[in-house]
Structures are given as C-alpha cells and as structure tokens.
Amino acid sequence: MDRTQLSTIASLGVFRPSDLEAVGIPRRRLYSLLSEGRIERLSRGLYASRRHRFTEHHALALVCRRVPHAVVCLLSALRFHGLTTQTSPTVWIAIPEKARRPHLGDQRLSVCRFSAAALEEGVENHDVEGVPVRVTGAARTVVDCFRYRNKIGIDVAVEALKDYTRKHRSGASELARHARARGVSRIMQPYMDAIA
Fold it and tell me: Is this structure's pTM higher than 0.85?
C-alpha cells in the first residue's frame, strides 16, 4: 500500500468499510490492513488508522458514523458545548419520529424522537474525528433540556441555563426564540427572571 492510500485512510478518521470503497480502496483490502497493523477495529463495523487521534467526543463520532441521520442532543450536546458538569454513560441522540430505533450493541443510546422541523432548526454541523456530527446548538440544547425536564431532571436544565447565560451574555434573544418555537417559554421564564 502506498503512502497516498495510507494518508487517505488517515484522513477518513473513523470509517466504515464502505467508506474505503468510496475513496477507491477495495473492501477486501480491509483485512490485510488490519493484519498489517495499519488500521484498528474500534467497534463492530468501524475502523480507524493506527495514527488516528481520539478526542473527548470520540463516542459521538462512533455513533454518528453508524447513525448518520441522528442529531446529538440533550446531555450529550450539553457536554459538547461545555454547559454542564453532568456525565452520562449514554449518547443522547434525536432521530425522526418514524425512524427505526438504532441498536448499536456496544454503545448505550438514549433516543428522543423529533419532528422533521425540530431536526433542522438550531442544529449545527461539526467535524469530530473526520465524522460529520450534527449537534443541537447551545441555546437550542438549553431549551430542549426544559422541554425534556422529566427525562433529564429540572436541576440539569437550570444548571445548563445558568452556564449558558454566563458563557453567552448576549444570547437571551436566541434562547427566547427557541423557547417560543419549542413551546416552553412559560416554563423557562421564571428561571430566566431569577438568573437575570
């Protein structure tokens, strides 16, 4: 295997066998790359170059490579934006209302179902370890925490609101816009008034 192909593999980040074929490397070459120690198996159906650099958001890259239509949300999005001290052993994702629930086996998921509009509004695109990852924006994430307060706890939502207002001093109008769109303005207002 020449250096160009090895460089191409390294640029893929976390990849599936079909991603190799998309860049012109036959799928059958996967097993020899594994036995030569040039790539490693990360989990079922996912691989990376031995030179791959893992980040703190590695779990998001693994999930979004296997569930490309997912949007990272709630606790996982809070961690991504640095808006919580909470940790979660699961990756929180949103999928379309009628989509089949993904089962990844080796990765625990908490799945929410969003409407088509909710899967687009306030969603940002990021690159994590070479994988396109869609994440709800910071303001949208805080609002979703209030909307799903029964799932994650009101204390988590209030902490996220406090962290957001500290980090984004001019973000009140964006919060209000998302709160109206998601139907939680009345629920959030007392907390926003108390923090202001």
Answer: yes
Q: Is the pLDDT of residue 1 over 70?
A: no
Cα–Cα separations (whole angstroms), residue 72 to 63, 95, 189:
9, 9, 25
Predicted local distance difference test score (pLDDT) of residue 10: 86
Domains of the chain, earliest start first: 3-49 (no CATH), 58-195 (3.30.460)
Q: For the segment 144-196, what is each residue's pLDDT rounded down to a tens digit?
A: 999 999 999 999 999 999 999 999 888 888 999 999 999 999 999 998 888 76
